[in-house]
Amino acid sequence: MTRLKADSRHLVRFKLNGKPVEAEAEPRMLLSDFLRHQLGATGTHVGCEHGVCGACTVVVDGMLTRSCLTLAAQVDGCDVKTVEGLAPSADRLGALQRAFRRNHALQCGFCTAGILMSLDHYLSRNPAPTEEEIRDLLSGHLCRCTGYTPIIRAALEAALSATATEESSDA
Amino acid sequence: MKPAAFDYLRTENVGDVLEGLTQEGGNARVLAGGQSLMAMLNMRLAKPKLLIDIMRIKEFRQIERKADAVVIGAGVRQAELLAWPDLAEALPLVALALPWVGHMQTRSRGTICGSLAHADPSAEMPLTLVALGGEVHLRSARRRRRVAAKDFFAGMMLTARADDELIEGISLPIVRDGRFAFREVARRHGDFAIVACAAMRTPSGVRLAVGGVADVPTARDWPRLEGSALDDALNGFAYDLDARDDVHATARYRRDLVRMIGRDLIREVLQ
Ligand SMILES: Cc1cc2nc3c(=O)[nH]c(=O)nc-3n(C[C@@H](O)[C@H](O)[C@H](O)COP(=O)(O)OP(=O)(O)OC[C@H]3O[C@@H](n4cnc5c(N)ncnc54)[C@H](O)[C@@H]3O)c2cc1C
Ligand code: FES
Ligand code: FES
User: Fold this and answer.
1) Contacts with B110 from chain A: Cβ below 8 Å
2) Distance separating alpha carbons of residues B130 and A114, to the nearest angstrom
3) SS3 A120
């Protein structure tokens, strides 16, 4: 049993995009604030802080997770993935990110990190999604710029190009 | 906004949870999936002194199929139940209703029991529990007891759970050769229901359960009804639910939905 006192800071450790990280947090600190303020990982955005907008979505132990509805203390020892982990290297974009760029699936970019995390997670488990399924997934995100259509196009295109590469590498 | 300060207790042992609840009573809150509680903390609608995280308790993570019921532990997430291979066959009504609970991104964390403890009058799982006539398994340091669905919900976000009690799990009956239907109207898919209805065929006729209208999900049984007798019965039920106007819909619109969806679903299950 671990009881963390309200008025002091406690060490929180987890894996962020495969690398061990640690910093201090009061029990009430949200994972979204911990990522941004304690770890400087500002790719994860914060919109509504009540679970509705999806901007803060990350992946914790393989589960899509609103980081604004999660305490930093809750993910101690967990495996956390954020948008910073999507690109294969600092100077290259991943297939999904490239599809976003080609299809103008972002304008201001505020919602983008959360949407990318949802799509990356979903496509890795459902490589050949229907448009219907992508729309259902996107119901968990708000975007005030794009009107969603380019996002759906980018998601379907990324899925297609991923299956196409797999098929050609099989051949 | 950010939450007010609280102690955070994490444990793998049920005894620690019960002790914490006994000591702190109403000042303690169980933290399950956090999909309702964390939003309330962020908005400072709740200011507990102690949060007790139950998600690392292994014995709560089980879905157990018994001869005539399925027992779902306090740690079972909505997404896990949706992915349970027996769901459509053992609990067809849950299979119909659960995809309406929030979004993929909230079902991944939110639990079944957390939704029942939260007891939002528009929520789908309380409606399903009432429609099926399930039971809530409560446990405190003093005792264990089971409460029938119809006695569990006491009002808007109020339940029969005492401050020192934990919901350990629930049981939902397996109905053989059942026929079920579910429909909901909301502003967008994933929003809370304006009206949600579940219907099932019963040995003597039909049952309709309605959420989003009264303070608690409410079920009513009828013998096989058709034509104007069915319309009259539905109209009476719609008025008895005592709908109110709010920002989402008028009382009149809610009554209309109960009559229309009710008729469609009852026809569907009696076909
Ligand atoms: C964007 C969004 C949309 C949503 N849409 C819907 C919707 O359409 N329909 C719907 O039904 N819900 C909806 N929800 C809420 C749903 O996702 C929650 O999962 C559910 O209401 C609470 O479950 P939880 O496990 O997250 O509980 P928590 O948020 O952890 O807890 C909720 C309450 O229950 C108590 N509690 C939890 N578990 C127990 C237990 N085992 N014993 C005693 N007390 C306990 C907590 O102390 C707290 O008071 C939505 C949430 C969000 C963020
Ligand atoms: S900031 Fe977390 S969902 Fe909006
Ligand atoms: S790109 Fe601006 S909110 Fe989505």
Assistant:
1) none
2) 36
3) helix
Q: How many Å apart are CA B166 and CA B14, to the nearest integer?
A: 10
The model carries a pTM of 0.96
Q: What is the pLDDT of residues B201-232, one digit of tens each?
A: 999 999 999 999 999 999 999 999 889 999 99
pLDDT in tens, B149-197: 999 999 999 999 999 999 999 999 999 889 999 999 998 887 889 999 9
Q: What whole-number distance in Å separates Cα of residue B213 and Cα of residue B56?
A: 36
Chosen CATH of A11-85 out of 2.40.30.30, 3.10.20.30, 3.40.630.10, 3.40.50.620: 3.10.20.30
- The domain defined by B7-53 folds into 3.30.43
CATH topology for A95-170 is: DNA polymerase; domain 1 (1.10.150)
Contacts of A50 in chain B (CB under 8 A): 39, 42-43
CA distance B206 to B268: 11
Domain spans, chain A:
11-85, 95-170
Which of B1, B10, B38 lies nearest to residue A70, judging by beta carbons?
Answer: B38
Expressed in angstroms, the distance from the first to the final Cα of chain B is 51
Q: Give me the residues of A, 71-100, that contact B with CB < 8 A.
A: 71, 73-74, 76
Q: Verify whether the Cβ–Cβ distance A139 to B190 is below 8 Å.
A: yes
Sheet holding B218-223, edge to edge: B180-185, B195-202, B205-211, B218-223
| Separation in Å, CA of B238 to nearest CA in chain A | 30
Distance B180 CA to ligand 3 centre (A): 40
Architecture of the CATH domain B180-269: 2-Layer Sandwich (3.30)
Name the β-bridge partners of B200. Answer: B180, B207
Q: Which atom of ligand 2 is nearest to the CA of A68?
A: 2
CATH 3.30.390.50 in chain B, residue ranges: 180-269
Contact between chains at A66 and B105 (C-beta distance less than 8 A): yes
- Please name the residue that has the structure tokens 């209703």: B97
- What residue spans in chain B does CATH classification 3.30.43.10 cover? 7-53
**Which fold, B58-173?**
3.30.465
Nearest CA to ligand 1 atom 46: B30
Yes or no: say if A56 and A32 are a contact pair by the CB < 8 Å rule.
yes
pLDDT digits (tens, 9 = 90+) for A21-38: 999 999 999 999 999 999
In eight-state DSSP terms, residue B63 is E
